[in-house]
Amino acid sequence: MFIRKASIYDAPALTELALRSKRAWGYDDVFIARIMNDMIVRGDYLRHEHGLVAEEHGSILGYAILRTEKDHAVLRDLFIEPAYFKRGIGEKLFAKCVEIARNHSMKRLSLESDPNAAEFYERMGMHVTGSVPSPAEDGRSLPLLEMEL
Questions:
Q1: 51 CB-contact burial (10 Å; exposed 0-12 / middle 13-18 / buried 19+)
Q2: What digits encode the pLDDT tens for the residues 23-72?
Q3: Domains of the chain from N-terminus onward
Q4: Which of 32, 35, 70, 130 could disulfide-pair with 144, CB 3.0 to 4.6 Å?
Q5: Measured distance CA(116)–CA(145) in Å, rounded
Q6: How far is CA 59 from the centre of its chain?
Q7: What DSSP state is assigned to residue 25?
Q8: Which residues pair with 66 in a beta bridge?
């Protein structure tokens, strides 16, 4: 497996991967429809932000998108193909995002996490600092996690 820079041409495949990954947590079609706008990987993200793709033998196994703002980085996305969960791909993508953030002199990294993934980010060294409303607009909240860089 290697990690490469994402291309704007990867956007449709990354969107489909994100949806498969999200569904692996047991979310139904009604929920997915409510969050669909938030799940779409837009070409502009990959053009203006730091998109990374984990790939092996031409197959995309996961991806991450990191946005940098002044001295703060935001992990927009980190999704893994469900068949490759728990194989270290997420850890490698996360570590690469931290490296990029540090190389850009970011002082902190944050993200709004799916509740099912918060434990992963805590293992990576992040801490829950609050919550934000879910884009599903269903009364749920998403954990907000941060770490100092």
A1: buried
A2: 999 999 999 999 999 999 999 999 999 999 999 999 999 999 999 999 99
A3: 2-110 (3.40.630.30)
A4: 130
A5: 13
A6: 18
A7: T
A8: 50, 75
